[in-house]
Fold this protein.
Amino acid sequence: SNPPAHTTTLISHLSFGSGMLRQLALLSSSLLTSHTSGFVGRTVGRALASPPSNPPALATMSSSASAASAASAAAVEDRPYGAWESPITSKAITAGSVRLGGLHYSDGELYWLEGRPQEKGRNVLCRYAPDDAGRSERDGVDVTPADSNARTRVHEYGGGAVAFGPAGRVYYSEFADQRLRELAGGSDRTVTEGGDRYRFADGVVTPDGKTMYCVREDHADPHPSRVVNEVVAVDLDSGDMEVVATGNDFYAAPRLSPDGRRVAYVTWNHPSMPWDATELRVVDLGGGGTESGGHELVAGEDGDTSVIQPAWSTKTGDLYYISDETGYYNLYRAGTEGTILPMEHDLGGSAPGWALGQQGYAFLDDGRVAASYSKDGRSVLLVADVGGDGKAVDVVEYGSDDGLPMMFGGVTPGGEGGVVYLTGGSPSTPTSVYRWDMERRDPATILACSSSLSFPEDVISTPELVEFPTTLGTAFGYYYPPKNDRFQSSDRAPPLLVKAHGGPTACTGTSFNAGLQFWTSRGYAILDVDYGGSTGYGRDYRRRLRGSWGIVDIDDVCAGARYLVEKGLADGDRLCIDGGSAGGYTTLGALAFKDVFKAGCSLYGVADLSALAADTHKFESRYLDGLVGPYKTDEDKELYKKRSPIESVDTLNCPILLLQGAEDKIVPPNQAELMHDALLKKGIPTALKMYENEQHGFRAATNIEDALDSEL
């Protein structure tokens, strides 16, 4: 579920606090554009208005929505900011919406994954079938069985739960028991045994359909320090497994060479995270041994470079990968010195490393590479000839002026010349699956939309990218002004809700986010902050949090709020903040260590760093080493206490809401429980809501709705 880039997410599920992956936005709803007044103060670029598109006909939300739209033509009513009536309700957000991502095209068929909140959040593999009598409103048919959930728990964040074989065969990880299943000819067969001991992800199937190379996570001993990650070869007939690479703490992206003789993979060890330092290695399947230390080291030898997302070219047999060696995630070819596509922008997606199966570039049928990156709040598609032995040539860039959606990712070649499929949207267009022909450059066609509902245009706020001063120079965010043409306010300025994304090594985005419009349509302003440490701004910006989590991020969210107050765009007496996971920590820290905000909401956030260091899953069990420092000496432990909001309850003096999943293995429920108890003892107005059967991020519709309504 940290979704591929630009996939809509539910409340969030990115690392310590969500939004880890993208990111990431609440369920979407509207296909309508809106206009906002000019932004006062320094902005980067312009208001992020939507490009032309051809959305499918959508059902009107309800008679009340129609009435609201009609009423907008009537007299405007004066009400205080925050007291405006809105058709964007929590039930409307979840009622007709799904998450979309995981695009795949093969054998002339297009597939995607849907996350369905109305079906307890289960993930369903769908095939595009617009002529099928049993198609859904998104013109898709279910491929996985009605009682299945295609979701892996490798690294807890998952990703790469589905792999495709020849002759239409599909393999997926079943969430209930984490076993691999095969779908072929209408049958559903269990491939692997072992109960829930093993978890599988990020697989690639050999052309003959006999073997899958994938990441396996062994929970024979579930203690995080004793969970074993490896690359294995799974016999898809017998279910037998053979270790291909072992000896390191983590593995990702096993990729089989076109000749079938070698497997490339990414690996790293504690305390690094995949955006800190990784290695790209290649093992010879003819006798290279299983220990990673004996496999060919292709990149990452300096121990301080992030190497991600390897891929082989089927045209030339060359191995490509992304590295941040230059200070940005650029594209490389093994054996060629330096990047083959130098640029001061990050490839690889919005939050690379959080989920398995991520791939920020792909090869077209003619051997050219296609990749996407973000610039000033908009996505750019880059296409280049990389088939030589030097730098890329014939580099062409495409954007919204060429018919693409404003924001997009998951670029997938369509096997038809210049046709590509992608997921994308805009501030007023829900995440959708698009088809686009780069030769014709007509507006991209929407094949499937994540929402069947629409909201009136006059309640959709358009964000503006803003750069504001902070302690380490400048930071960035997206400002959403209040928007509801039925109302105006004589108040001096609107209340402001500051959003702190999860990760913290992740970022926010501008795809339509009904969870933000929920607030702006009621008269709140929003500042969605990409604080120092966020992705998408280069390595130096991403590394601002090294040793400084709980300092830089908190300084930045506070600086952003103050900046808007100075510009007259927010009421300094009505500032509030929320965030999930790592954003929950930033929220609690801002409330505990600063005197800026009047209320806050932490969604599955971190309150006690010491408790988190002792109780979290393997993937992030040493994350704090880089964000705060080692946890060994008494001096180290004192620093952890100093940075923990729970240790500063005496400085808290405003209401705090805590929302938590009862089955969260990333930020365990004891974090919220400990904080709640401490707040009660201090006599601070507080509430804790514990959602059963939820993990890190809320997926069931009833819980998503309750979380939004409770915070309001």
In short: The first strand starts at residue 43 and ends at 47. The first helix runs from residue 63 to 71. The radius of gyration is 24 Å.
